[in-house]
Specification:
Layout: H1 4-7, E1 9-10, E2 15-16, H2 21-31, E3 35-39, E4 45-50, H3 51-59, H4 70-73, E5 81-82, H5 87-96, E6 101-105, E7 111-116, H6 117-123, H7 126-137
Parallel strand pairs: 2-3, 5-6
Antiparallel strand pairs: 1-7, 3-4, 6-7
Domain CBS: 8-66, 73-131
Keywords: CBS domain
Pfam family, one: CBS
Length: 140
């Protein structure tokens, strides 16, 4: 059985809600990722900030990324999955909520990785990937 831990990219890192978006962009560049989970002072996940969020919701809207915080962009209920969840659970979570990146937590609720579309494509067969893409992108 393939699990979320098997699918995920390791080394995901939270960024504090109070950190500015320019620092988030720098960290994304350093880590070579397009999204960072956003955590509060107790390291509880509050959402995700993406490179697209920074461009569309901050820069293109005329805001200064050195003055807008990651917490300012967090919207909705954060989603995550247990490292021992199976492939069907992972796909169901991503499809149901039409999300493209899914943080993975261990039994102690620590962030241990992130599952992206690339991870799904690398792990699943072509038919499963096609079905996933159709469901996640339906209506978007």
């Amino acid at each position: 059985m393939t699990t979320a831990a098997d699918m995920m990219s390791q080394g995901a890192q939270c960024i504090p809600m109070t950190e500015t978006l320019d620092r988030a962009a720098q960290l994304m560049r350093e880590l070579k990722v397009g999204a960072l989970p956003v955590c509060d002072a107790d390291e509880r996940m509050q959402g995700i900030v993406t490179d697209r969020d920074i461009v569309v919701k901050c820069v293109a809207a005329g805001h200064d990324p050195s003055r807008v915080t990651c917490g300012d962009l967090c919207e909705g209920t954060p989603r995550w999955i247990s490292a021992d969840a199976d492939t069907e659970e992972v796909l169901s979570e991503m499809e149901t909520h039409q999300i493209r990146r899914l943080p993975v937590i261990d039994g102690n609720k620590n962030l241990v990785g992130m599952i992206s579309e690339a991870d799904v494509a690398r792990t699943l067969d072509d038919d499963q990937v096609a079905e996933f893409v159709e469901r996640v992108y339906a209506g978007s």
